[in-house]
Structures are given as C-alpha cells and as structure tokens.
Design a protein that fits this description.
By secondary structure, the chain is of the alpha/beta class. Helix content is about 40%, strand content about 15%. Helix 11 (about 275-285) packs across helix 12 and helix 12 packs parallel to helix 15 (about 395-409).
Length: about 400
Amino acid sequence: MKNLDIDFTRAQFPAFAEASLQGQAFFENAGGSYTCAPVFNRLMRFYRERKVQPYAPYEASRLGGEEMDEARARLAAIMGVATDELSFGPSTSQNTYVLAQAVRQWLPKGAAIVVTNQDHEANSGVWRRLADGGIEVREWAIDRETGHLDQDDLAGLLGDGKVRLVCFPHCSNVVGEINPVAEIVAMAHAAGAATCVDGVSYAPHGLPDVAALGTDIYLFSAYKTYGPHQGIMVIRRALGAALPNQGHYFNGDTLYKRFTPAGPDHAQVAASAGMADYIDAQFAHHSGGTATAVARGAFVHDLMRAHEVRLLQPLLDYLAARNDVRLLGPRRAEMRAPTVAVETSRPGEEVAAALAAHGIMAGGGDFYAVRPLQAMGVDPAKGVLRMSFVHYTSHAEVEALIRALDQVL
C-alpha cells in the first residue's frame, strides 16, 4: 500500500486554507473533526437548491429526497450492511437513548445486560438506567492501571445465560485501546446476547466493515468523521425487527425509521453523502483501480490507520519517557487510536490552555468519561490533557506538539 498523500488529503479540507487557523495545529479531533469539502459542497447545494420538503413529485423536492437516499445507501454499502439498516439521528447520544427505551420494552423479566466502565457516558448511562425498571445491570470493569477490558472477565458475566445485551466501545475516548470487537461479539452471541458497539471514538480513523464485525448495533457520529452534526447508527435487521418501534406507528415497517422518532435534518442527511465522496476520492487517488464499496472503505481505512500509527508512536514514546505524566492506555500505536490522554500534576484544562499559547489546539477535562477516569484513579474534577488527531494530521504538527509539551509540562 502507498503511504497517505498528506498534501492531497489536506487539500480536501477547507480548514487548512482558512487564514484564521494558520499557525495552529488541531489536536482535539476526538471532540469533532474538520469537515471535508464534499460535505460542505453538498450542504450548501441542498440549502441553495433543495431546501423544500423532500420526496414530493416536483423537481427540487425529488432531488432532495434522492440525495438523502444516496447518503444512506452509499454509507451503508461502505460498511457492508443493507441500506435500510442505517439510520440518521440528531446525535449518537440521542440515538442511544432511543435504543435504550426500545430495549427496556423488549427485555423479559429477569434479564440482564452488560455495560463497561471504559465507555463514554452516552453508551453507559442510558443502559445503566434500565436498572430502574428491574433489569440487572452487570459491569465489565477495566483494569485500574491499564484501562484494559479482559475478555475472561466478560466470560464470567455471561456464564448464567441471563444476559441479553452487551454494550461496549470499539475504543474509549480516553483509554484509546482498540477492543477486539469481532471476538467480543462472538462471545456474546454464543451466550445468547446481542451487542451494541459505540464506535464514536473509532470511526474517525476509518469506517469499519460492520458486517465483518458481526455486531447487532454500531453507532458513531458524522461530525467526528468529517461530516455534519448527525448521529449514524447501524441496526441489523434481526434485532431491529425484534425491538419495539419507537417512531410513528405508520412507519413501523420501515427499518430505518423505527428508531428515529424525530424528523431527520434533511440537509445534513443529504450532506453526509459527502463522507462517501471523500472516501472514494482517497481510494481513487491512492489506488487508481476499481473495487466494491466495502473494499474501497477497507482500503481507505487501512491507509488512514497506517499513517496514524506512524505519527502516533513517537508521541507515545515521548510521553512514556517522561516521569511527570501518566499516559493512559497502551504504549504501542498499533493497539490504539491516536486519542492520547495523560494525567499531569495540573488540571487538564490548565495544560490545554498553556498549549494554546504555543499554537496547539488540545483539550482538557473529563470528556464525559467520568467512569473510566475514576476507575483508573484519576480525579475527574482535575481531568486529563487529551491530544487527539486523525489522518490529516502531519508529521510536522506532531513534532510541534512535542516541542510545545516540552515548554508547558
């Protein structure tokens, strides 16, 4: 595989040509990525030419509906699922909340679910609240030192056959370790449980082949994958049909409408096709060949990850060598996403503010990851410094980050 062409890549993002952002390196991508040009272009076109109620017979409406359908179809194809198995909602937190209400109605008396304390609160809190309705909630707990989820511990939680749903992250937004999703899903399915995977912190590093992972539900956020502020969820047909409809009763036979009770944001749904445009552009530039949508997505996923791993290892080595910070999560780049949280002697927000004076845009705080921070002995009130990047980050920017850390730590 060719190395990622960083100049071509950055040319696809208007932010890198924006005068107000010059001289600054963006290291808070886990909170939301820059938006790629195809998404901008589609969003502006929709507002300019299609901002009418979609799916009516007149031309502007017909084209608007077709663009919304295109977004769903193309993104689903890249992830290896059927078009109607992909839904859009206002955010991943909202999508997860709606799913939890459906699961509350679906679970039989005496059933149990498994959650982790490695998660962002959006894929933990709503599931834990099912305990209010008599559902047993079992916690798959992380290792206090490493933040790792041990599969042997999960096996113990699944042993009695009562668990009907296992909710866990593809990777944590502070630990960063990439969990072996396919293996965990296989364990859960063998025990008779469905799975819900929070992919918010993983998808920005390459959209996964959801069919290959085998999970029943996969959730992520378009605004962290170079798109508009939408939540995207994949619900495989078998589970989607079994869960009670949460939408209008007359939409119950349409899978992608069953768990989106609010009307979709037409323009942002249509603009999400720009995410597929971007993936296809990367494939065409670096491959020059032809392939199925799944293969194109896999190629670009691997291209992005290889670039990120090359840039990430020097940063991890630098942080691991310091005796004044605690690096959360794995020290090997291939085991984790480039979302790097460290505990320092000062509050995370204070260190992030100091970095800003050196042209580094990073974040500090708890990042709604209160449970994993507490489990690893980090005071959420003090929080952590988080430095997160994606494939459009350059080697020079990582070097600038390390130089700035030398100044502020």
